[in-house]
Amino acid sequence: MSPRSPLLIRASLAADRVLTTAAYLHYLFWEETLWAWTQADRRDAANQLIYGNRETFLPGGATFEGGLYDWEEACIHTPPFPQTGRILLGGAGGGRELSQLCKRGFHVVAFEPCERYFHGASQVVSEYPGSSVICASYADLVAAVTDRSGPLAGAILNQSFDAVLFGWGSINYVLSEPDRLALLRAVLAIAPKAPLLLSFNYPLSSENGRLDCVRPALKRLFKSLGAPSSRSPGDHFRSWTGFFHGLTEDDLVSLAAGSGYRVVSAKGGLCPHALLEPVTTTSTK
Asked: Is residue 118 classed exposed, middle or buried when 0-12, 13-18 and 19+ CB atoms within 10 A define those classes?
């Protein structure tokens, strides 16, 4: 007969299991609820509010002052990423990447939808007359290409770009697959020979745990109550990230193939990232 753990230890472990289960159910319920009852335009507004309060991304903040990450340094020094020229930078945040690219001699057209971060990035670009930053979103980029309208139209149409960079994890905030495809196709239209460097975050869970069986019931309930939307696999909400969609390497390959790119290189780990290249460019090499 094996010895039993002391009663207090068994009670503590049981309490931990109860609290862990309750915490996951709490997270699961609110994730499904927020995606079901928050319309798309309000998700964007919520994300800007959540991120806009984070000082670390602004000039003087710890993340900003840390400069480029090691993987970013490696990517921008590796072909086919150019060593000089004009870069389109989307999701520029407070200007961390913008500052470092300008210091390295690139001319950058950057854009950022969060007004507070736009002002931070504007401080950066004021020191570099050959670069600019615009308060605009990825949806504005698509509108500029498809309708020749919006705040980006004058800055990106009839311009040439040697490379395109999406700010750290910003592709995860383009929340639907059709919107992600439209974004990459728009980028390809204005920069048909330029490589595209982006980073992304994985889904937070596989959603196949024993407690995830609650999700379909919640979806059915919310639909019967007239919810304007519903959550799809990979859609998440966290108090520190807002609404975002997790991506896998397979998702990225599919996204590239559906928009006229191929994946030149991709790496996982703590900061998953990939370098894409237009298919038309590779076919002429």
From this structure: buried
| Among the listed residues 280, 257, 255, 253, the one whose alpha carbon sits nearest the alpha carbon of residue 265 | 253
Residues 126 and 193 in one domain: yes
**In terms of residue numbers, what domain contains 276?**
67-200+248-283
Residue 233: asked if its preceding bond is cis (omega within 30°), the reply is: no
> Into how many domains does the chain fold?
2
Give per-residue pLDDT as tens, 10-64: 889 999 999 999 999 999 999 999 999 999 889 999 998 898 888 999 999 999 9
In DSSP terms, which residues pair with 199 in a beta bridge? 273
Token reading at 237: 């909400």
Q: Which pLDDT tens digit goes with each residue over 108-132?
A: 999 999 999 999 999 999 999 999 9
- Look at residue 55 and tell me if it is in a domain: no
Residue 271 has phi, psi (to 5 degrees) of -130, 75
- Claim to verify: residue 209 and residue 193 sit in the same structural domain: no
Question: How far apart are alpha carbons 200 and 170 in whole angstroms?
Answer: 7
**pLDDT of 273 strictly over 90:** yes
| Residue 63, amino acid | T
Nearest to 142, CA basis, from 103, 110, 182: 182
Q: How many helices (H) and strands (E) does the chain have?
A: 12, 9
